[in-house]
Amino acid sequence: MQGVRAGRRARRPRRAASGGSRSRQPRRGRAGHEPRAGDRARGRGRASEADPHRQGHRGRGGAIVRARAGAYRTIVSLTTLLRSGRPARSLVAFAQDTRFSFERFDAHVRALVAALGSRPREARAGGERWLLQTGDSYSFAVGLFALWHHGGVAVLPPNAAPGTLERLAADVVGAISDRSDLLPGRVLHPLRPGAANAQPLPPLLGTLSPSQPAVELFTSGTTGESKGVEKVLRHLDDEVKVLEARFGALCGDAWVFATASPQHLYGLLFRVLWPLASARPFRAETYLHPAELVPRMMQTSDCVLVGTPAHLRRLREMPGLEKLRGVCRAIFSSGGPLDEQTADVLTEALGRAPIEIFGSTETGGVAMREQFPGPGRLAFTPLPGVEVERSPDGRARVRSPFVSAVPAEASFTMGDKIALEPDGRFLLEGRADRVVKIGEKRLSLPDMEQALRCHRWVSEAALVPLGKGPDARVGAVIVPSEEGRSALARESRRAVSLALGASLELDFDRVLLPRAYRYVDALPQDERGKVSPAALGELFAKGEEAPPTEPELVDEQRSGRRLERALRVPADLAFLEGHFPRFPVVPGVVQLRWALRLAAELLGHEPQVAGVEALKFRELLRPGDAFRAAVELSASGEAFEFRLWREEPRGTRVFSTGRCVLRREPGGA
Prior knowledge:
Mean pLDDT: 82
Number of strands: 33
Structural class: alpha/beta
CATH superfamily of the domain at 1-10 and 287-433: ANL, N-terminal domain
Radius of gyration: 26 Å
Shape: globular
């Protein structure tokens, strides 16, 4: 993980790439101080005059709201949340057409606890394990607290891929989900648990134990195969209290919007647990498209946004973003470093820099930064109660009450390399495990990625090792800039790849240069917003790349009978050839094909279509266009409707709509 210096195009001095690692000048701080292995950066609870975040901000009406070391409000422990005496009518969460009061939340949790208690109980050390995955964060919160009060553990699958669910299914009792197909025959709906009808509701839920196993999360798999990480309730409770102490005054009475998934630790804490413990209402739905998200944020007049770098990069392109100034108190980001261009655009529009949280599934939150223009903008400050030191091999060694699976007094060594600053902050220097050996020479993949980003034709770049041993090489996945798209349209891919390789020769030995290139509209990412190494490798699995036939996937939302995706038309879509030479558009038959593919994903098999009704093509869909596609199955299951559209500030542009009638099985009613 490294800070991205967006927009810098200067050539750098050539680096030697002889056998073994490169020599490097030691990093020196001010006044000649040279940080050493074992030096520490400490998080402090007190405000610092050097920290702009602690200087307060001007709220609506002109009053200065000053941050302080203590919490903004009384924080309720997660162990006693449902016994806290919170007013029954106070708002917990809100959705498009519904508001959920604390009284309603308590009733939903008790109903699900009753349903769980009505099932044959499995005797298992550490409590029953249930998959928990829902399409909205309110249902997620109900499922989570019901499991805890049942004495169970919530297993949070990192995604809903069939392979992932198959691997986890054998080790869980069932699933709490709004998708009946998640684990067929073993699913309880969090808001409609049928078995609860036969059971009296518990009159009052008890106090939870801080030491009880609470959740099992999964690492991103950046360093290899994803692995499970268990958190006890104390880990989560302690971190929520620190978040309120550090950021509570800034957030005030704001309502919480989020694009980060609660299936992962960052979204779990910032989107669900912290708002619940601090009595801040949170939005249940996820709006991934800025044109859908921003108007809803404006309606609240006082909110915060919990996002990821991928979503914030799209947000920066939203026209009229400055309207959120005075409405959005803060933007949080985690999952990877936020590039400087996005940070600067959001800072200028909103009047304050996004708050980036650095951490991991194992450590919880470690540090934060705000990229204010000027020296030191990329440095991170440890969170209160967290100590960070540099290990002998240059990696971040963390001592924190949030660290899983180690005693509180022990430390955890992360895979991120750091450089300590004299003032107690630190800089990220990439992943320690992203150094590969090519032709007996060592290559830092982050260094070459950064060099590629410096080229005017490149917006984003990611490298992936290909092959092993003497056949090892590197593949480059490139997101072209506007200039790069023009170059690809004007010249061949091979010519563009040769030009990028020539620019890398200024810094790297020729043997290290990428041997294959792929050009995409967006880097493949997982649910955390992190670039997926496995997906990068798949781009090279089929040898020479043919022009794409499918749209680029950006995001996905799924509920029981509906699947919606955010997509982008590839600039070199195979079906554009000859349709039309000077004004290429996506043919209508291709849009219908994409809708059928989406329906197959929803149904789990290829749809048998008897006929297509009300088919309309309204607006032209062109190469490079971002759009959304949705299919929704009718209640009877006999047909599905599809729609391709895009939300714009001036309204909705609909590209195509239709209804597909499914063929009945022989002998069906």
